[in-house]
Write a structure and sequence with these properties.
38% helix, alpha/beta, 2 domains, 6-stranded mixed sheet, Udp-n-acetylmuramoylalanyl-d-glutamate--2,6- Diaminopimelate Ligase, Chain: A, domain 1, 5-stranded mixed sheet
Amino acid sequence: MKLSALSNYLNEILQPTKFKDYCPNGLQVEGRQDISKIITGVTASQALIEAAIERNADAILVHHGYFWRGESLEIVGIKKRRIQALLKHDINLFAYHLPLDAHPEFGNNVMLAKQLNWVIEEWLDDKQMVAKATLPTPITLTALSELINIQLGRTPQVIAGSKSTVQTIAWCTGAAQQYIDIAIAANVDVFISGEISEQTVHAVRESGTAYIAAGHHATERYGIQALGNHLAQRMNLVHEFVDINNPV
């Protein structure tokens, strides 16, 4: 398919203009005009670019792209090498940040729920970034941590709250530890995100709401895969997800 058709379709379903984001969403680096094979990944690292080159991909689709707010504007060093490789091999780079987090079908939060077999019962914020679910029966925090470890392949960091068991869960993938205040206000038993900050521990101790840091990368692998699989089926494209391991 043509690059313009793919770009238009992605913008149509992800609607990036609805989000005030930290980076540009959509086509970030333009490559060849004909697209038949796409590589998806969490972050547009040099390793992912090299994997796309090895696989003769026409486009890379990621959650974490380039040109973040506040970063240096100069294209030097690491940024220069990444962009140079894309341009040399005529590979397109698409990136969708918040639009992918919040998407009702391919979103990171929706797909994490599917991975862990949770049913979203409501959104705790008006941007549909913090989801809530209620487990059929209460379980221990240790059991919940073990489930996350098995399903995501990463040992989470757990800060225990005031309850011996948990049943109501709120979550937001990635670096969303600041949303614990929303979870506390909703009186859930545990809040789950990707990362943890120093002040998060104090919030747990003072509120009683437990916290699990399940990994930024680990919690955001599933949305981009779902989107890539959708494109492959809808547009008759070849799609491969490449997981560049990241312990954070």
